[in-house]
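Researcher: Let's try something more involved. This one mixes different molecule types, so please make sure each is placed in the same coordinate frame as the others.
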Amino acid sequence: MRKHNSSLVNGLTRRSFIKAAGLAGAAAVFGGGAPVVLAQSRAPLKIGALNSYSKVFAALGNANVNGMALYFNSIGNTIAGRKIEIIREDDEINPQVGLQKLKKLVESDKCDLVTGIQASNVAMAAVQYLRQSRAFMLCSGAGLVNLAFTGLPYFFRSSVNTYPVHSSMGEWVYDNVSKEVLISASDFAGGRGSLKEFKDGFEGRGGKIIKEIYPPLGNNDFSPYFADIRNINPPSTFHFYAGTDAVRFVNQYAEYGLKDSIPITGSGFMLDSDTLPAQGRSAMGIRNVLHYADTLDNAANQEFVEGYRGAHNEYPSVYAEYGYVAAAVIHAALEAIDGNTSDRDKLREAMLAVELDAPRGPFKFNQKTQGPVHNVYIREVAEVDNRITNKVIHTINNVTDPEKLPA
Amino acid sequence: MDFLVSQLLNSLVFGMLLFMMSAGLSLIFGLMNVVNLAHGSFFMIGSFTAFTLAQWSGNFWIALAAGWVPAAAAAVLMERIFIRPLYSRSHLDQVLLTFGFIFVFGDICKYLWGPDIRNIPPPEALEGAIIVAGAVLPKYRLFLVAFGVAVAVLLWLFLERSRIGAMVRAGVDDAATAAGIGINVPFLFGCIFALGAALAAVGGIVAGPVLGTYLGMDIEILIPAFIVTVVGGMGSLKGALVAGLLVGAIDTFGKAYFPDYALFLIYLLMVVVLLKRPQGLFGVVKG
Amino acid sequence: MNMKTSGRIPGFLALCVLLVLAPLGGDYLLGIVSEILIFAIFAMSLNLIVGYTGLLSFGHAAFFGVATYVVIGLGVHLGISGWLGAIAGVLASTALAAFIGMFCIRVKGIPFLMLTMAFSQLLFATALKWRSVTGGTDGLIGFMPPDFFGWNMGSDAIARYIVIVIGFLSVLIFLWYLVRSPLGSIFIGIRDNEQRMRAIGYPVQRFKLIAFTIAGCLAGIGGSLYALFNSYVSSDILHWHLSGDAMIMVILGGSGTVFGPAFGAALFLLLKNFISSYNEYWAFWVGVIFIFCVMFLREGVWGLVMKHFGRLFSNKDNSQSRNRSHSESKRQSHSHSHSHSESEKRVVAGAATGEQL
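Model: All components are placed in one shared frame. Result:
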């Protein structure tokens, strides 16, 4: 081996490396990201978007902000003369990080309100903080039922409460598919919670759960569980998986021939635009439940879908719709009070009064829990206009949070 | 019985993927004494590239034939510009360098393909399953096993029967002497690094229809690949194959019968091998 | 041993001033500084074995994470106070380090690296699966931080900060004296030439184990503080990702000094937070800087600072310059490759005797 001087390395000198990296770095960091604040007659409207922009929830966080941006762009990025500034922070699906970033948005960036939060563990940590800080939050992501019962006056949720969604499915499956069912989900809080919600609806009608299976989160290969299912031979099944697990589960369910023999139903979260392209034909015919479908035939949805396709060259997912509706809600509420965010109680009143035609259908807030009142759709994966997506086969109107926190 | 048969197939599938990953790692270490922590990145780059190719061409085979090229090219650049200058430094410095590349490659993939989960559709001819002894055996998985065997055979032929292969084996045994008899060792290093990356990329391509194509698959495959390489022995192709099948079997059957302990068992295997026989089952003790 | 304290006292005082001023920046800034200090402890503890004893470990997260789990676990399951939990956590990490160390030191170099990673992953797998105790990926919630002289650490950011600062300064001062002590010289000797140490008659294995155990104990201090700071733990904390992050901090800051990794921790976390506010590709930039440091700045950013500004405060002595040129010369990688690759003498440039802070 040749000896070399430590500072000259086969043409790539220390200097040239620094120069190249430095230029690229400066361009990338500052060229693309910093929001521009123009001279305005009124202070800009700062909206914090606290989501998970990295790791497994990255697509959700990005879709959320894309949806918001789409709506705000359509109204000229201004509400009541105030320019909208969205400040993104990544909670890394970690409650402590999320809490730090939330504090930054509220205390350091002085956001007028904060939206987002896809991860339920971050949401719960945030609620703790909100008790002390009186900051205003419009949650546009996490669906766990507990968030409907925080009792916080300045906490709203415009996304969804998964409890009534999944329990409606439980009831529908009992009425329309079979009286006994085998259920499975990934072994984590979201999976277990969703199955419990389904069970409440299903068993509430008198149905019987044959077995519950919980493969580990991030499982590669579901064939051992399929063998089990095949042996039991239930009249139907219901499942909840997310992300890569959803893709693998649905694909393998078809690959192993189960789809032809045992009817499968599931949560809409495992069969939406973020996973359907990867699931393809394996998902065809699976009936599922969600409060949104990109094939919904209403004016707001058409505008939303077309706009999203124009901006991002792909169909929007439910997570993008969350962002879009949150933005619409903010618009409606703030316009009603002429953009004055200094009086939280007035903002709260205005928000409670919001009623709009969202892409998902009619939307308004539950006056007691400050969560959404909207439709829930039973959908079926089908090919529509050469695209694999969901068509609605049944609509349940005016679904909202239950009266109290279920046991 | 049918359960056993389908689990056997799955263990072979996973084993073959691990073999392809580990073979590259092993060769690179055996010849260059470099532990490439960014090996999983090549796996991921191959998978994403193939996804794009499959989308453009609508054909899986084209994606397989060409999808490994960017990964191999990245490997060549990486070796030439970054690793080569460090040959005279400690091997641990080289490990650290490759570790940094995990971050770099990971974000490059995120930038080019976005955060969504992708899927390489298997070729139409291999969709569906056949039933053997009551067991459902998906055709694509059978193909994957056969493909892995083919790769193993080709690699073996390359190493045992070709001139470059002979040079590689010489270099693995004793690089100083190899250089002494006129073998262009730096060029060889570049070739082997590229070959290792290509193997990992091909692994990522054929794994696509089974595992999916997504950010984070580089980290997920890395530890199992290292376990296989350590257990089989750094520098040994035979070790990569045997250990790959072994680990694949333990993982698959472990998950089926002892789901709570399967992960634990694999790491335990690695610990035991490292303590009892650090050079692995078939590895060479370097002097 | 010639203690060049003339330059160190001002440096140390400057650090103290910065630490005292931090609370003025608001709770958010204080949170970031607290996090930096905790990871500084973690990185400095790793450097005891990487930079000062020459053992490259990728499994250090084990000792950090186990302490966190012990504190949170005892608090959530048994209602045990955070302070007692912290003591238990540090003891647990120390014992674990001694146990794992016993096995790991039997091998060297790459196998050592792999073995530390394997043990750490074993713990990770255990945490993942043993949901009843650890909560798996969901983690354990409901931990109530204890009081510190009347202030509750849960609600009072300054109380948390003070505890963490005390922890950080204690570890910093301890390490500073350790590397200058006879024990520290033995570690450095092992790093520089293990065979020679053995030939002289030192029980090298025993001392490696001591270094490993001390490092584990210090990491445990970091982990316990993290529990008090975070009030939450999940299996992520035992993933080798964290070990990797610690390694980055060590390299960024420089493995040649005690303070280097602390500086590296600050650099890493600030970069991450700063870049991620503008740009989602912070990992790319951290990777680039890291690669740069490995290739061209082996003494780390802090080492660079010390090289240029340290001269202002202290005199160069012969042993320093001798060691610097010693470590900068390149060797054939084949001759003595086995013994040289395990110890990391070329890894550390400049401060081979540990004279610098």
